[in-house]
Specification:
- The complex is a heterodimer.
- Chain A is of the alpha/beta class.
- Chain A has a single domain (8-244), classed as Rossmann fold (3-Layer(aba) Sandwich).
- Chain A has 8 helices and 7 strands, in the order H-H-E-H-E-H-E-H-E-H-E-H-E-E-H.
- Chain A has helices spanning 22-33, 35-41, 55-64, 80-92, 109-112, 150-162, 179-188, 217-244, and strands at 45-49, 72-77, 98-101, 116-121, 163-174, 191-200, 205-213.
- In chain A, a hairpin with a 4-residue loop joins strand 6 and strand 7.
- Chain B has a single domain (3-121), classed as Single Sheet (N-terminal domain of TfIIb).
- Chain B is 29% helix and 20% strand.
- Chain B has 4 helices and 4 strands; from the N terminus they run αβαααβββ.
- Chain B has helices at 3-6, 38-45, 50-59, 77-89; strands spanning 23-31, 90-98, 105-109, 112-113.
- A 4-stranded antiparallel β-sheet of chain B has the order 1-2-3-4.
- Chain B is globular and about 50 Å long.
- Classes of the chains: A alpha/beta, B alpha+beta.
Chain lengths: 245, 122
């Protein structure tokens, strides 16, 4: 059995908790694709916001466990059932993370600020009527409000607060979330970004974005901003082509 | 809930000033063994609020930590072992975390603290 990522048959479940699906697999594939960089990054604190079934945080731990010992892993979810399921999945794989039931990072943001080296988020990104946002149970796993952005836009400032100087964020988005707008918003906070994984499924066009604090902000703005935007629109048009094929 | 997390949790109720550390009211404490990693401990000690850790460990029945950490950690394995045990091996399985200002209780069930706020607290 490969211990590289979480095993589906060991993932715990509950009818009120989102099961690992295409978006979760795409996020873990992005972490796998970036594994060498993650090992070199040598994180001390890693965190998943919205851990749900626990599939992603468990995979992240298994991915790094042998090469990067002594990492503190944290996972939060706003759904009190989901945090229990996260813990069961971790235990089934014989790994450990500190799990907290929190709205994004309530209670953690003050003392954990500037300390987290890697954050992974598979947010509720599905465009829905605004009133569905913040509903209890499984709806909290997908209801994203207008353009699927209501919760994402709440998460990003918290992520900015929590990340260390060398911190990285991996974020699941849809093309309908206007990811280029998210990247520009983060650029204004001093982050560079790139698409790690793109995937079109029958229902959605998924993009896994990676953000990192750009040490050389000025040159980044001058040199790679147009390049990045051109790259982004190329990727997007490729996805659009696939959609209409 | 381990004390490494307790050390990072504060009360998020709107307007509360004295929000850290949360007082621990234990109902069930368990010990789970964790691999000893001195490098990790040396990295973490700078981020830890020492008094909160000492008081937290005491409230969970482990009074062995000194009031102040030694100035040199390198050669002090017996200290690092105690620090390791307090920070990573003591688990509050059931109990409450109490806000020092308001007395609001955050429950800990099956080892998971619930930091969600009520609507009127946000």
């Amino acid at each position: 059995m490969s211990s590289r990522i979480a095993s589906i048959r060991l993932v715990s479940s509950h009818r009120e908790v989102y099961e690992p699906c295409d978006d979760s697999f795409a996020l873990v594939d992005a972490l796998l694709a970036d594994r060498t960089n993650l090992i070199e990054h040598n994180p001390k604190v890693c965190m998943e916001i919205g851990s749900g079934s626990g599939y992603v945080i468990t995979s992240l731990i298994l991915l790094l466990k042998n090469e990067v010992p002594g990492v503190h892993y944290l996972a939060t979810d706003t759904n009190p059932i989901a945090v229990r399921v996260t813990k069961e999945t971790l235990e089934a794989h014989g790994v450990d993370a500190d799990v907290v039931c929190a709205d994004i990072a309530t209670g953690l943001d003050k003392r954990l600020a500037g300390s987290v080296d890697v954050i992974v988020v598979n947010p509720p990104y599905v465009p829905t009527p605004e009133y569905e946002v913040g509903m209890e149970g499984i709806a909290s796993a997908w209801a994203g409000g207008e353009n699927g952005r209501t919760v994402i836009d709440k998460i990003l400032p918290v992520v900015d607060l929590l990340l260390s100087d060398k911190g990285w964020l991996y974020l699941v988005t849809l093309t309908s979330n206007f990811p280029e707008e998210i990247c520009l918003m983060m650029r204004k906070k001093g982050y560079a970004s790139r698409i790690v994984v793109q995937r079109s499924t029958e229902e959605e066009n998924l993009l896994i974005l990676k953000f990192w604090r750009d040490q050389d902000e000025v040159s980044h703005k001058e040199i790679s901003s147009p390049t990045f935007l051109a790259h982004f629109s190329r990727s997007l048009s490729l996805l659009m082509e696939k959609r209409w094929r | 809930m381990r004390l490494i997390v307790h050390n990072m949790l504060s009360c998020n109720i709107r307007g509360v000033v004295n929000k850290f550390p949360l007082r621990i009211e234990p109902e069930k404490v368990i010990v789970k063994e964790v691999d000893f990693n001195p490098d990790f401990l040396k990295h973490m000690i700078a981020k830890i609020d020492w008094k909160a850790l000492v008081d937290g460990a005491r409230s969970m029945g482990y009074p062995e930590l000194p009031d102040h950490p030694p100035t040199t950690l390198e050669s002090d394995e017996s200290f690092l072992r105690k620090f390791h045990h307090s920070l990573l091996e003591l688990n509050l399985e059931e109990g409450s975390l109490v806000c020092p200002e308001t007395g609001r209780k955050f429950s800990v069930n099956k080892g998971i603290p619930n930091m969600l706020l009520h609507e009127d607290e946000v």
